[in-house]
C-alpha cells in the first residue's frame, strides 16, 4: 500500500505541474498579445461571464476547464486577468461558482493562480468561503483555507503577525462578513452541516491562539452569534466546544455581544443546554435580552415551569428582584402572561410574599393590576385568595384593580367578566379617584362601540340550533317511549313510568328544554340589541319582557306548558317535579342577579305559576 500511495501522489503532482505549465504559457502569451486590453479592463466594470467557461466551471473537471480557458482566451483575444475578472449577474466569480458546486480540485487550481479571488465578494457580500460553507462542502472549505494560508494578499493584510510564527491568513476569511453580517461559520450553523461546523470551530480555536477575536461569538445584523445559533438549534456538542473557547480566552459575560444564548436555551426549553451554560459559566445568568429581561423573566414569560424551578433553585437571590426595561419583576411578567403555577412558585421562594405582591412597575401597577389589565381570571382569583394581598392599592392613575376591570366595554368577553367577578367576590374596593388607564400597546382599547355585524351570523346559527333542540325536546315529552296504558287504573299513563331509566329520560328532556328555551329567548333579545345591555348584567324585569312581543310571550310560556303536561302522563312524577323546581330556581337566580332592576313582579308570578302547576299535575292552572 505504501508504494501504491507514493505512485498516486507522484502522478497527482505530475498532473499538477503539467496544468501549471500550461497555464503559465497561456499567461505569457496573453500578456504579450493583449497588453493594452488588460489596462482598460482594470478600470472597467466586471463583464458578463463567458458561457462556455461557466459550463466548464460547473462541470468541475480541471483539464476541461483549462482547455476551455485556452480556447476562450485565444478566440476572443482576452487576457487571463480580464477573463477571471468576469462575473455572473449576481457578481459571482469563477471561484464562487466552483465552490458552490464543491469542486475542490478546481477551487484549489483557481485559488492557487488567482489568490485575489479568495476575498472577492458577490452581490450579497459572500466570499467563496461563504458559498462553500452554506452548501456544506467540507473539502472545498478546507481547500480554500489551505490556499489562503499562502495567499500574498492575505499575507499583506495580516502583516501585523509574522507568518512564519502562525498561519493567520485564515482568520481574515473566517471573520469576513456578508451583507447580513454572517461569517462562514454563521452560514454553516444556519444550515447546520455538522462536520463542517466542527472543522470551522477547530480553525476558530487555532486562529484565536494568536490574539484574534473568536469567530464563534461574532454577532450578525440580527444580533445572533454562531454560539447563539448552536444553542438555539440544540446542538449540545457544538455548544460545549464553543464554550471551551469562551472559557479558554478568559472572557466575561460582558464580552458576549448580541442575543443571549441563555435566553435561547430557555425559549427552546432545553434544560440540558441551560444547565451546561450556567454550570460552566454561572455569570451568564446576568445576561439580558434586548428588552432588559433576565433569564427568569424569559422563563416566566413563556411559562417554562422547569426552567423557572431550575433558576430559582440555583440563582433565586439574583433573579427575583431584577427588573427589566419596563420595571417589571419576574412576578409581574408571569402575572401578565397568566402563568398561575409560576406566580405561586415565585411567592414561595421570596421570604415575604406579601411584600412581593406590593412591588410596582414603572407605572405603579402591581401583579394584580397587570393580571387584571390583561384579563387573566385564574391569576386574579389566585392572588385574591392570598391573605397577604392588598386589594386597595392604586397605580399612578389612582386606580385599583377593580377600577381597571370596570373599564371593560359593554360587549366584554367571558374571560373579562370572570376577571371582574373574581375581584367583586373578593371584595376588592374602588379607588377614590377614577381615571382612564393609560393606553398600552399590549392592552386593547376600551369603550369602543361594538360592531354588531360580527355577531349576527353567530347569533343566527345558535338561535337555529337552540330552536331545533327546544322543538325536539318539547315533542319528546308527549311521545313517550313505550307508549301509553289503555286500561284502568293507569289509562293514558306512560307504560314505563316506573322505570328508573325512563324517569332519567324525562328529567334530562326537561333540563334540555329549559336550557334551549332560555338560550333561544336570550338570543332573540340579542338580535334586538337589548340582550347585550341588560341580560349579560342580569335578567331584566318581566314587565318589560311580557310587553316585548307575542313571540317572546309564547316562548316563555312554552316550557311551563310542558312541565304542566309531562308529569300528568306519569303515575309517579316526584323526579320530574324536582326537575321542574330546579329549573324554576335557576330562573329565580337569574332574577336575583338582576335585582338592581325593579320591574320583576310579573316574572316572579310566572315562576310561581310554573311551580304550582307542575306540582299539581292535574292540568289546571289557577289564577
Would you write up a description of this structure?
It is found in: Membrane. Keywords: ANK repeat, Membrane, Repeat, Transmembrane, Transmembrane helix. This is Ankyrin repeat family protein. Pfam families: Ank_2, PGG. By secondary structure, the protein is mainly α. Among the domains are: 121 residues, Ankyrin repeat-containing domain (Serine Threonine Protein Phosphatase 5, Tetratricopeptide repeat), CATH 1.25.40.20; 156 residues. The protein is 59% helix and 0% strand. The protein has 33 helices and no strands. The C terminus is likely disordered.
List the helices and strands and how they pair.
Elements: H1 2-33, H2 35-43, H3 51-59, H4 62-76, H5 80-83, H6 94-100, H7 104-113, H8 128-135, H9 138-148, H10 152-157, H11 169-175, H12 184-190, H13 194-208, H14 226-233, H15 236-248, H16 261-267, H17 271-280, H18 295-302, H19 305-319, H20 330-337, H21 340-349, H22 353-358, H23 367-373, H24 377-384, H25 401-405, H26 414-425, H27 453-476, H28 500-527, H29 531-534, H30 542-546, H31 550-565, H32 574-593, H33 601-616
Helix pairs in contact: 1-4, 3-4, 6-7, 6-8, 7-9, 8-9, 8-12, 12-13, 13-15, 14-16, 15-17, 16-17, 16-18, 18-19, 18-20, 19-21, 20-21, 20-23, 24-26, 27-28, 28-31, 28-32, 31-33, 32-33
Amino acid at each position: 500500500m505504501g508504494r501504491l500511495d507514493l505512485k498516486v501522489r507522484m502522478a497527482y503532482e505530475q498532473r499538477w505541474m503539467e496544468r501549471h505549465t500550461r497555464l503559465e504559457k497561456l499567461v505569457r502569451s496573453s500578456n504579450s498579445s493583449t497588453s493594452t486590453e488588460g489596462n482598460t479592463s482594470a478600470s472597467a466594470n466586471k463583464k458578463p461571464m463567458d458561457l462556455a467557461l461557466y459550463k466548464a466551471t460547473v462541470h468541475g473537471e480541471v483539464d476541461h476547464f483549462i482547455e476551455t480557458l485556452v480556447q476562450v482566451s485565444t478566440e476572443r483575444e482576452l487576457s487571463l486577468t480580464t477573463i477571471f475578472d468576469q462575473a455572473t449577474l449576481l457578481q459571482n466569480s469563477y471561484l464562487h461558482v466552483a465552490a458552490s458546486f464543491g469542486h475542490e480540485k478546481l477551487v484549489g487550481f483557481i485559488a492557487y493562480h488567482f489568490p485575489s479571488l479568495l476575498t472577492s465578494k458577490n452581490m450579497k457580500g459572500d466570499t467563496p468561503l461563504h458559498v462553500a460553507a452554506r452548501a456544506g462542502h467540507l473539502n472545498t472549505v478546507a481547500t480554500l483555507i489551505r490556499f489562503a494560508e499562502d495567499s500574498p494578499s492575505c499575507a499583506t493584510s495580516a502583516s501585523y503577525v509574522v507568518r512564519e510564527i502562525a498561519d493567520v491568513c485564515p482568520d481574515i476569511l473566517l471573520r469576513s462578513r456578508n451583507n447580513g453580517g454572517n461569517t462562514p461559520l454563521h452560514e454553516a450553523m444556519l444550515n447546520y452541516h455538522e462536520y463542517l461546523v466542527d472543522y470551522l470551530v477547530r480553525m476558530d480555536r487555532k486562529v484565536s491562539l494568536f490574539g484574534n477575536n473568536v469567530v464563534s461569538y461574532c454577532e450578525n445584523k440580527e444580533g445572533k452569534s454562531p454560539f447563539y445559533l448552536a444553542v438555539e438549534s440544540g446542538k449540545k456538542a457544538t455548544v460545549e466546544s464553543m464554550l471551551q473557547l469562551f472559557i479558554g480566552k478568559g472572557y466575561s459575560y460582558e464580552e458576549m455581544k448580541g442575543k443571549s444564548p441563555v435566553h435561547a436555551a430557555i425559549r427552546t426549553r432545553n434544560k440540558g443546554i441551560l444547565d451546561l451554560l450556567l454550570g460552566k459559566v454561572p455569570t451568564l445568568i446576568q445576561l439580558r435580552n434586548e428588552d432588559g429581561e433576565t433569564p427568569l423573566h424569559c422563563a416566566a414569560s413563556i411559562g417554562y415551569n422547569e426552567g423557572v424551578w431550575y433558576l430559582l433553585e440555583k440563582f433565586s437571590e439574583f433573579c427575583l428582584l431584577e427588573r427589566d426595561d419596563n420595571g417589571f419583576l419576574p412576578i409581574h411578567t408571569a402575572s401578565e402572561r397568566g402563568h398561575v403555577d409560576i406566580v405561586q412558585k415565585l411567592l414561595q421562594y421570596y421570604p415575604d410574599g406579601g411584600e412581593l405582591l406590593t412591588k410596582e412597575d414603572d407605572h405603579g401597577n402591581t401583579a394584580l393590576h397587570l393580571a387584571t389589565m390583561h384579563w387573566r381570571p385564574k391569576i386574579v382569583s389566585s392572588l385574591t385568595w392570598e391573605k397577604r394581598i392588598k386589594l386597595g392599592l392604586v397605580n399612578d392613575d389612582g386606580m385599583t384593580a377593580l377600577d381597571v376591570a370596570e373599564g371593560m366595554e359593554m360587549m366584554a368577553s367571558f374571560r373579562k367578566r370572570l376577571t371582574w367577578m373574581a375581584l367583586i367576590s373578593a371584595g376588592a374596593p374602588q379607588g377614590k379617584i377614577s381615571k382612564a388607564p393609560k393606553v398600552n400597546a399590549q392592552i386593547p382599547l376600551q369603550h369602543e362601540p361594538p360592531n354588531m355585524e360580527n355577531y349576527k351570523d353567530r347569533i343566527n346559527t345558535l338561535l337555529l340550533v337552540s330552536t331545533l333542540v327546544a322543538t325536539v325536546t318539547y315533542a319528546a315529552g308527549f311521545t313517550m317511549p313505550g307508549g301509553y296504558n289503555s286500561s284502568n287504573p293507569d289509562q293514558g299513563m306512560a307504560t314505563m313510568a316506573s322505570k328508573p331509566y325512563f324517569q332519567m329520560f324525562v328529567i334530562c328532556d326537561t333540563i334540555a328544554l329549559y336550557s334551549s328555551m332560555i338560550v333561544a329567548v336570550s338570543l332573540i333579545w340579542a338580535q334586538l340589541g337589548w340582550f347585550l345591555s341588560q341580560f349579560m348584567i342580569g335578567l331584566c324585569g318581566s314587565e318589560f319582557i311580557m310587553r316585548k312581543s307575542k313571540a317572546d310571550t309564547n316562548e316563555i310560556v312554552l316550557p311551563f306548558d310542558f312541565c304542566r303536561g309531562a308529569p300528568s302522563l306519569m303515575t309517579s312524577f316526584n323526579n320530574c317535579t324536582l326537575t321542574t323546581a330546579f329549573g324554576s330556581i335557576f330562573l329565580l337566580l337569574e332574577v336575583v342577579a338582576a335585582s338592581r332592576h325593579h320591574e320583576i313582579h310579573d316574572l316572579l308570578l310566572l315562576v310561581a305559576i310554573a311551580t304550582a302547576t307542575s306540582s299539581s299535575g292535574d292540568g289546571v292552572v289557577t289564577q
